[in-house]
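Entry for magnesium ion complex. Fields follow.
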Amino acid sequence: MSDPVLLSVEGVAVDLPTPRGNLRAVDQVDLRIGAGRTLGVVGESGCGKTMLSRAILQLLPRKARLSGRVMFDGQDLVRLEPEQLRKLRGRSIAVVFQDPMTSLNPVLTIGTQLIETLQEHLELGALAAKKRSAELLAAVGIPAPEQRLMQYPHQLSGGMRQRVAIAIALSCEPKLLIADEPTTALDVTVQAQILDLLAREQRRRHMAMILITHDLGVVAGRTDEVAVMYAGRVVERAPTPELFKRMRMPYTEALLAAIPKIDAAPHTPLPAISGRPPDPTRPIQGCSFSPRCRYAASRCFREKPLLADADRLDHQYACFHPIQVAAGICA
Amino acid sequence: MMQEARQSSSRDSLLRVENLVVEYAVGGKTIHAVSDVSLQVARGETLGLVGESGCGKSTLGRAVLQLRRPVSGRVLFDGQDLTAMQGDSLRRIRRRVQLIFQDPIASLNPRRRIGDIIAEPLVISGVKDPKKRQELVCEVLSAVGLDPGLVIERLPHEFSGGQCQRICIARALVLNPEFVICDEPVSALDVSIRAQILNLLEDMKARFGLTLLFIAHDLAVVKAVSDRVAVMYLGRLCEVGPSEQLFAKPAHHYTALLIEAIPVPDPDVRPAETVAVGEPPSPIAPPSGCRFRTRCPRADQRCIDEVPELRPVAPDQFAACHHPLIATA
Ligand SMILES: Nc1ncnc2c1ncn2[C@@H]1O[C@H](COP(=O)(O)OP(=O)(O)OP(=O)(O)O)[C@@H](O)[C@H]1O
Ligand code: SF4
Ligand code: SF4
Ligand SMILES: [Mg+2]
């Protein structure tokens, strides 16, 4: 990675008090992302992906406790005043959620929402903001943008709404875009369009992007690096091509195997991962994947494997019995 | 009628849908949800039904069960026309056809215990002996991989999405149906749990000798379980054929587009850049001629003027396209 580090998440943990006891949603996560780079964060639902993104944005539920540092462009976001944070969010760091209605106001027109964002953060005049809004809608592939400005969110399809949410997110030329399952609620064809749109704008603007998803297929062709999360931790991290060529962590392998493959014959049984992720209020003593792991041995049930230092291929994993890769490649 | 006869002549079909039309009236306008669709499903077969959101897949499933009465067309189940049936005779047939929904949690009554939820269809269909009901409930719960002792007293909110889907499957199977319509049964589930449920459906199909109509918008999921696949677009059928053949050699431009849009978990395969131009137009005023023409790279004047009919393009494969991607047989 030659680009300077833009965001560095250092030893971040998030605890949430619940009636059932303390829930550790994010557990000692370290991540870095360079300016203009893309990072995919992959894992099953409940593994802490969304809490991690909210920890970066400092948008955690009120009762949550956060420890660690979130260094963005030289500042620790954890220590910023609410006012400074509000300026930063939407301006330097933007976010796109799974459900576009999270970021759209149902009672305001698309135009009003875009124009307000532009005026607030960029101090544009009314006319300039309006012109810029139409340009942004056109850039995210919305036909007849001038007319759309007058419409309300409910008058658009799900795919169109997500495009509008992306237009708002991109409006202030952020340095970092966090896209949290941006296409999970959409159809395959629309999903492909939205992912292409994000990739294109990311490159064009030299913006860094964190793409959060439960589908390894989504990150494969579209990210520089991937971090796989399980039970609140990063369990494997590598440059994307390296990860797919030499995956070491049994969980990553299992996630990939469980995806139905379009070139497999019908009625081929899928290698499903048995069981389900552990209850985060009841931490597991050894490796959190051990109850579901087909390689688990006695040590895995006693000790927690830590994310090892990166090897020369910049690959890290937390496993006592990593999958062996062909000799010679990883001597 | 010729058309269905040709779709699959060799096997005995349990379900035949003939020229089905379903519409909704909304604010004085008509939504053309299903327009002139014909299909058949052979006994013991799984037919996959794919298409984008709003193309009418669920409406078709509901119209088969007469939960939504069609405007015209026929639905023949085991030779009997359901569209002509009412009351008791329809209820009797419905015992043999069950439906599983996309959102497993929402489709379970939150205030009822799992045991009662699964026993309910038995009560309705007149199994009076509570012991007998309990026995059947336990049997079907074990079949779907849940421990009856741990499950029957509990409420739906105590279960994960995957477990709720198992419960829904148990409820659908307790009456021992012949035909099950699965409407997006795994769309709301994570990849890992999705694989468990797909495998379970395959097991149940073999164990109970089921025939399935499997509705989904994800082609790879559909292919994993289906013998044949039917592709719908904006209320019309575009293409139908044996799964493998359809994926290897799609004839309809829309099928080809759907296949290209599937994310491939391999970083060496660069995603095709914006294959999927635009979104489906409104079903209130669908385009003339071929409904896909506004997004089709191959569309010409004929596609605007003439509705393409379903025609054979290869053995057992049929496409409704004026310019199919494979030379017509
Ligand atoms: N009860 C209803 N009243 C009015 N319109 C309806 C109703 N149900 C469905 N529609 C409309 O009919 C069309 C077909 O809808 P349907 O739900 O059958 O599509 P689908 O293919 O199942 O979509 P999805 O993938 O989103 O489930 C859509 O335009 C939809 O908005
Ligand atoms: S540490 Fe053990 S249980 Fe955990 S992933 Fe590795 S082999 Fe499996
Ligand atoms: S009929 Fe015409 S518009 Fe429709 S899919 Fe075929 S070529 Fe395209
Ligand atoms: Mg539906």
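NOTE: Chain A has two domains: 5-92+174-330, 103-172.
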